[in-house]
Every structure is written in structure tokens, then in C-alpha cells.
């Protein structure tokens, strides 16, 4: 079979060997917490300041735009994941609807996205943890608290948290999901505390001028200003619900649980973001938010709530590992399914009999993330995660359109309403946000996928399970 024509059938995606079958242990509450855990993290704790600097008070509109685009993508993900309740997310859907080469492209893109997100968040967590360690008076050399790019030698806290999360995930999906649920509750309490203290000090004057940089995306010194420029960056704060779709194979009742998990987490997080952003801008000028590395804590300190500000900082330390957990979970499942399909070494697709998880693949993922977080500079490459996610969202929307034509009568536990409008809204919206990204981000994305094409034609094309069949 020519690689141009290789694609899985809808029937074949559920046919796999027992040693590669993931154990269904997750309910809808676990999936919602996985989605919220992945979405609510660095985005609301730090990116609200970055977005305010790019768009001014109109950053609230930027949140709406990014949220609407993600909502359209989330509906497409829900239809695809309930139709094909298998691990692999956008990669698996592309393999069925578009073929092996597009699936490889999407899977390779997701590998970059998830790895970069995990590494960046691990480094961000290290910054909070290092400050906490030093505040306790523990004498740890600065060389062990930052990588070479930040003036140190090795970022030990980042390595520790990456390996700790990988170890927890390897123990079992239900165990790690339960821990994630508890940590998500803590950070939601912290955000509710912030809103309750900031809203009474609301100052409408902080919303003027509302849109100092206009609606579009204007590039100034490598950054895109304006509402759409901010939306392209803030988009990072919304994705995470796609990690829920990677758990499809481990859902107890995929038809019900995936719908609740994906759509529920998106609705909850969009509401949380709108309320927190309004409270933050009402409590502080946007230039002050933009200048702070911890904008929410800064607002509370300026409002004379120092204890609450410390609680917000502590909650950030608690919150960030849930983001690492959600994306490392998704990363390990993408790796796992690509290995199961032969596009990566198949020995990595073995499931541990005791835990029911791809323990080996999970630890490999953790080691890769730890190495990147411990040593490499991530500031420039971090934005490329947005590029990868936007491409994956476009692919899922295209898959939904293709399968509506190719398999109109296939069982669909969830059918996206007005699917043509929703799909094209996701495609056009994601494409516009992709164009709104800085030039260096798009160049990095192209280079990564050029490497991926070489890997495919040198290795994966010949090792594919479909090729050998």
C-alpha cells in the first residue's frame, strides 16, 4: 500500500492487542478536573499580565476571541473523541480521516507542543519553588536553581517536578487523576479568594483607554500588539481541554464522560478567566499588570492584602504541577499510540499489567521533559506550542468535515450542532491566530516539522504497522 493511501478505518481504530490496551478507569469528574488542571494554570496566573501589556483593558475581548475559537475546536474534539474513543487525540482522528502522512505531521506537531508546554511550566514552577526554598533559609547554590541560559548550571527543581509528575502518572491514571482533582480544587479556591478581595476595589477608570493598540495584530520589536495579537498569546491559556481527548481510551463511559469533560472544562474555564480578568483590571492599571511577573499577587498586595497575596503565590506552586500533569499525560498517550502504530519503536507501546498505564512511555516522556527543562533555554521556543496547537485544532475541524462526508451514518454519541459553521469558524479562527503569531515562532514551527518529514521518510514510513501489514 502506498503511503499516500494509508489510512485506518473507523473499525480498525478499536482493534489492538491486549498488551497495548489502556484500562478504562476515569469518570467525567476526573476528565473535567484534567481539563481544568491543564487550562487553569500559567495562563491566568501570568499571561493576564502579558495580554494586558499587548492589548490594554481590551485584553478581556482577547479572552473572548480566544475562548470562542477554542469553543468551536472543543465541539469538534467532542464529536471526534466520542466517535473514536481511543487514545491519540488529533493524531488518531487524522489517521482515519486524512491518512498516515497528515497523521504523522499532526502527531509530530503535538509532540513538540506537549513537550514544550511541560518544560516551560516546569521551569516556571521552579522559579516559584526556588523563591520558596530561599525564603525558608535553605542554602541551595544558585547554580542548581537555574539552567545555563539563566546563569546557572542545572535547574534541579524543574527536573525534580518533571520526574515526580511522570512517576505519579506511571502509578495509574485514576490515582494521578484523583491527586489532580484535589490540586485543582485548591487553585480554584485561590482564584475565588482573589475575585472576592479585588472586586470591592473595582475602579472603572482602569478601563480607559479601552483599546490603546487597536483591534488587529501589529508587530513591534518582535511582539504582536492589539486585541488579536494578545488573543494569539492568550490562546495558550485556553488549550488543555485537548488533553481530555487523549484520555478517551481510559474513560469508563466515553459517550457521556468525554462530552462532559471537554465541554464542561471549556465552559468553566472561560467563565473563570472572564471574571478573574475583569477583577484584575478593575483593581490595577494594565501597565502595572504587564510589568509584574505575578500580576494577581501584585494586585492583592497593592490592595493591602499581603496574606492573601502569599496564598495566591502558594496556590501557583500548587497549580502549575497540574498543568504539567495534564500535558505530560497527553504527551505520553500521543507517544504511546504512535508507537503502537509503528511510527515510533513499538516496544514503547507496552502497557504495565499492574497500573494499566504505558509506564515505560510515561517515564521516557518525563526524562525528555526533565532534560529540556533542566538545561535548555525556552523563552523563544515556548510560543511555538501555540503554533502546534492551532494546527492540531485545524486538523480536528477538517477531520470532522471529512468524516461527515465519508461516513455520514457512523455512530456519533455527540453531533456538533451546525457543524459546518462550527468547523469553518475553528479553521478560520485558528488560521488567523496562527498568522498573528511572531515571525520567529512560525519559523521555528516550520523547522521542527521539516525535521519531522525527514524522520518519517527515513524511519516511520517503513516501520508503520500498515506498511508491514
From TrEMBL:
| Primary subcellular site in the record, as a coarse category | membrane
Named from the GO MF annotations, one term is:
amino acid transmembrane transporter activity
Keyword terms, alphabetized: Membrane, Transmembrane, Transmembrane helix, Transport
Q: How does it sit in the membrane?
A: Multi-pass membrane protein
User: Which is a Gene Ontology cellular component entry for this protein?
Assistant: membrane
Q: Could you confirm whether the keyword Amino-acid biosynthesis appears in this record? A: no
Q: Where in the cell is it found?
A: Membrane
Stretches that traverse the bilayer? 26-48, 54-77, 103-125, 145-169, 181-202, 222-241, 262-282, 307-330, 359-378, 384-404, 416-437, 443-462
The protein's name: Amino acid permease
